[in-house]
Design a protein that fits this description.
The chain is mostly helical. Helices cover 72% and strands 0% of the residues. It has a domain of 356 residues.
Length: 518
């Protein structure tokens, strides 16, 4: 009997191995693992027309500091974002400035070959020695498969705008999306430098700490209820929900999710005792403030994010674990996570009262509101399933009144998948899922590379991956993801992952053999 069981086990493993090997080429194509955009850039006639701009850049004093100036723009975005929630024009102007500078920087760029290397050496020679680390990021490529998917997603959104029944309103949304995507491109460029990466994440974490401290102060001294959306008949109705500088508890919860993940991994990256104590303080303050928001979506995102982060940390350290724990560490973490959540819900009365409203369906007014909005949005998707109504909340607000249930007006779909589907149709939603697939695949590949070399930058990568999962989980029941304070953080996480991208080994070997002419 044991011999038969052993043979069946070996046969099953053999079949699984064969299926895996046969599926690998398809998986590589699906995740664009073999895509080599740098080959087009270095050999393209179209890109060659920009050589005069590249010669001008080498003689320009300002553009010698191009990456440093771009990093300063990015740092400024995250330094002021939570404090200008009532003044959208300030952040819009700053995003437009980032977009303009990125266009100037990119058009005057050299190739990823010897020409760019010579240009960089010339720039460094004219620059102070202490800024060399700023001006010379790692030699990772400027264009990645993530960039390709971002451009494809923008193209689908542009097509949805062109075919929208409210073209002017959709164009407004497309303009906003374009600013965010160009900000991603600028961040992916400057974050290739480890020093810039450290400064950008550090500035965001310090801004988030100030936001959390003010939120805790609101909890301590009381706060006027603003847009709390709590069912007055719920036991948790009397519990104040903090919103800090952002003016909305759900928005604050989404803003703090990346801060919690990044401050957790910062504890392992920062080496001195002082910074480690600061990281612990950030984790405690951000987590406490997140709890005080009373945001059920934020709590769901927090649980998903922490679980993924624990799994990634276990994978990182698995090479140091005994054989027994390599096998049973993941089930143990899963069981322990579920146990902690259950105990917290059972023992903490405010958490229990608030969390229980998730399961009462339409009996909770907030749930009932969202369900009615979702029903209306599904009807909108049914009428325009291919490319939707066009991107942006202005287009949504122009079409939604024709579908809304009485007394259930809404500014968005209150769900990221539904919002993307209603704005850009099934094609846009498929493209977005593809973008996520490519992003997570690259994140995993680069994590394996950093793990093999024990590079501490892998912790930032784990924080970015876990944050994306947390924001997506929160976004299943809310759309604060579209607010500038959150959308910039979303693209920061994707830019962090893209900044670690390196060319596959076989691509590096064949780079001189392949030419693509346009």
């Amino acid at each position: 009997m044991k011999s038969l069981w052993h043979q069946l086990t070996l046969l099953t493993l053999s079949l699984w191995h064969q299926l895996t090997l046969s599926a690998l080429p398809l998986w590589h194509q699906l995740t664009l693992s073999t895509l080599s955009l740098h080959q087009w850039r270095s050999a393209s006639y179209l890109h060659g027309l920009l050589r005069p701009l590249r010669r001008w850049r080498q003689s320009s004093f300002m553009l010698q500091w191009g990456d440093f100036i771009g990093a300063a723009f990015v740092c400024l975005v995250f330094a002021i974002a939570p404090f200008v929630s009532d003044d959208k024009s300030s952040l819009a102007v700053l995003l437009a400035a980032c977009a303009g500078f990125w266009v100037l920087l990119t058009l005057s760029d050299g190739d990823d070959s010897s020409e760019q290397a010579v240009g960089n050496q010339a720039e460094t020679a004219r620059s102070p020695q202490r800024w060399q680390n700023w001006l010379n990021p790692s030699r990772s490529p400027l264009a990645t498969p993530i960039h390709f998917m971002v451009v494809l997603y923008w193209g689908v959104s542009a097509a949805a705008t062109a075919l929208s029944p409210v073209k002017r309103a959709a164009f407004t949304g497309l303009s906003k999306l374009t600013l965010y995507l160009i900000l991603f491109a600028l961040m992916a460029r400057v974050l290739r430098s480890p020093r810039v990466r450290s400064w950008v994440t550090g500035i965001y974490l310090h801004a988030a700490l100030l936001v959390s401290c003010y939120g805790i102060q609101q909890k301590t001294f009381g706060v006027k209820a603003l847009a709390t959306w709590v069912d007055p008949t719920s036991p948790s109705a009397k519990e104040p929900r903090v919103y800090s500088y952002l003016g909305n508890p759900n928005l604050l919860a989404a803003y703090l999710l990346p801060a919690i993940a990044l401050s957790l991994v910062a504890f392992f990256v920062w080496r001195r005792k002082g910074p480690k104590l600061l990281a612990i303080t950030m984790v405690i303050a951000n987590s406490a403030c997140l709890y005080y928001t009373g945001s059920r979506g934020g709590w769901i995102g927090f649980a998903a994010m922490i679980f993924i982060l624990l799994v990634l940390l276990l994978h990182w350290w698995s090479v140091y674990l005994p054989r027994f724990w390599r096998t049973f560490a993941l089930p143990t973490v899963l069981g322990a996570s579920i146990a902690v959540i259950v105990l917290a819900v059972l023992l903490v009365a405010p958490l229990r009262d608030r969390a229980s409203t998730v399961f009462v369906g339409r009996q909770d007014s907030s749930n009932n509101f969202r369900i009615n909005v979702w029903m209306s949005v599904l009807e909108m998707i049914r009428d325009r399933p291919i490319l939707g109504i066009g991107p942006g909340n202005v287009a949504f607000n122009s079409i939604y009144p024709y579908y809304q249930r009485p007394r259930f007006s809404a500014l968005s779909a209150y769900s990221i998948p539904l919002e993307i589907a209603v704005e850009t149709g099934i094609i846009g939603l498929t493209c977005f899922v593809w973008l996520l697939l490519v992003t997570f695949n690259i994140g995993w590949q680069q994590l394996q590379r950093l793990r093999a070399t024990r590079d501490l930058d892998g912790f930032w990568l784990m924080g970015a991956i876990a944050t994306l999962v947390g924001l997506l989980s929160h976004g299943l029941v809310d759309t604060v993801w579209y607010r500038p304070q959150i959308n910039t953080l979303w693209w920061l996480m994707i830019a962090l992952i893209a900044s670690y991208y390196t060319l596959p080994t076989e691509t590096k070997e064949d780079v001189s053999k392949t030419e693509v002419r346009i």
